[in-house]
Amino acid sequence: MLTVGALSRGELDARLAGRGLYLQTGPFINAIRSTISHVSDGIALLYADYPLAASTEFADFHLHFPRSPLPRRLWRAQVRFDHDGVKPFAPLPEDQAWPMFEWVLNWCVSSRAHSYLMIHAAVVEKNGFAAILPAPPGSGKSTLCAALVHRGWRLLSDELTLVRLSDGLLQPLPRPVSLKNASIDVIRNYVDGAVFSRPIHETLKGTVAHLKAPADSVARAHETARPAWIVFPQYEAGAATSLTPLAPARAFMELAGNAFNYSLLGADGFEALAGLIGSSASYQFRYSSLDEAIATFNRLAPPAP
Amino acid sequence: MMAPAQLPLLVQLLRAPACVSGWSLKQWDLMLRQAVSANLTASVWSQLDGAGLLDVVPAAARRHLDWAHCLALRHGRAVRWEVRQIAEALAPLGLPLLLLKGAAYVMAGLEAGQGRLFSDIDILVPKERINEVESRLLLKGWMSGHHDPYDQRYYREWMHELPPMEHVKRETMIDVHHAILPPTARAHPDSRLLRAAAVAAAGQDCALVLQTLAPVDMVLHSATHLFFDGEFDHGLRDIVDLDRLLRRFGADESFWLALTPRALELGLQRPLFYALRYASWLLDSPVPAAVMAAAAQAGSPNPGLLALMDGLFGRALLPGHPSCGDGASAFARFSLYVRGNWLRMPPLMLARHLFHKAFISPKVAVGKV
Predict the structure, then answer these.
(1) Cα–Cα–Cα angle for B58, B63, B64, rounded to 5 degrees
(2) Domain count of chain B?
(3) What residues 83-102 of chain A have any CB closer than 8 A to a CB of chain B?
(4) Domain of A102?
(5) What pTM did the predictor assign?
(6) In contact, B71 and B43? CB cutoff 8 Å
(7) A21-25 and B173-177 beta bridge pairing
(8) Which residues make beta-bridge pairs with B44?
(9) pLDDT tens digits for B274-286?
(10) Are B369 and A204 in contact (CB < 8 Å)?
């Protein structure tokens, strides 16, 4: 299978500038066009391990990130996002092209892929069992996820937990992990040789940098996982590590609140979520030390068969 | 105007779904992109479902249709719920709830409502009761978003509807009309005639007293909405509505007999002519030759103007996707925008309105990511 890394930089740029780079992420094919160097730099750096689609006949998402037209390009150039003539987002300064690229890839999935119950949560797997980490921004979900996937857990996703409506299994969509503000240095110090995109300051979410996904997780993107644990993380400076069981009804309501399409799916959404809660143990998790947090995750007992 | 074989793939599919049997994956890819830009993906699902052709769709494309169908099912549920809320809010007034456009198609169980996604619910009420309707809606949580005194005056004096109202909790929109065209427009279809002919909606919820326009009036309203309006973002969707209504109601011969006389009675012969002409050209709607001839006699513009309109509508009714246009598409859309406003307001009033919107009205902040 041909990966992005097999293309020379010249070939990569030519595809992005021409008919498009047909990039496979999890179960989706993205046809990407852009002449903005931040976009091609980001793809070369963070997507080298990703497969190219076998054919260019079909893409799930056609994404175009054009540069500003000429006069504007010379002063405060912007990046725009054009989804086949539809422009759902306002332009951003061109410097923010890379975060925009990552947000847009998430948006394409979360606004369309209704064959999954989609939950705003990180999800990691070990020995066939997956832990789902739903949480609002600021709870340390992505930091914890980034640490786990460099200590023996497989990355399924940092943002989008996809529960297949057909069988309740979790569909991986491994992509770079989005880290913000202080978390960037925390993970830089915690993970030897961590590969990051250039931090971008003053975005809507503060300073943002993306951490390259482990190659093994990308290569195993077709292997689904069984949901086993739902862990609501909360980082609190200086807090002792504590894992507290959470009542299933409470976990259900919390997860429904974090889902993108729970109400859209109607009865199917209810059943998928009920199945997920039924097959998993739910916990509230408070932590300040990443080592202790990982040790706690490694001790999670597999569910009864 | 284009020959059928040169029409965009999306239009070919909507006109004769059987054509998809030999499509390559590349053709499916392009059709789906056109459907997204025309907001018709869910309509494609129902069109193929109706023709028993969903199973020939390749898996990669089928998944997109199923996703859109999911959205359409949810939309249908939400519309039925919202209509119920409106009916309950207005119940004390003792008025029948007369639904227009999308909500009417959904509640009457018409094909035109299948897979149709829309953001507002439109209702028609007697002009003399419109203040009571507004008060009841305000009491039940709908608010007007237009606080600018100029906007309020624009709607209340010159328009055929209240400023759009949004529910504070559900964020749903309702448009309350007292007529189907502004009083400033060239044609003045009498709302009393429309209301008097309204029929009970064969809705699923028998506890509610719901009405829709009578079949001929429903078609005439759809035509008026499309061909008097300046916005063609939904042009193809609106002509698909017309095609589906014509196919549904056209099974009854008396529908065709009543169409042109009713258009003349309401002063809507021009939009009727355009509707029949472009629906049969684009989507092969089965308009009987005699009806087409009668509508042309009643409403066709002179040959020069008709040739111009063919050039404009022939472009503006196609999907907005870049694969469906030529160098003149943007000009056609702009010209029709100007024309739409021209038809709705006398020139001086229009000039004053555009001047005010451009230089005096406070600017609204654009959406952010």
Answers:
(1) 105
(2) 1
(3) 83-86, 89-90, 92, 100
(4) 4-110
(5) 0.89
(6) no
(7) unpaired
(8) none
(9) 999 999 999 999 9
(10) yes
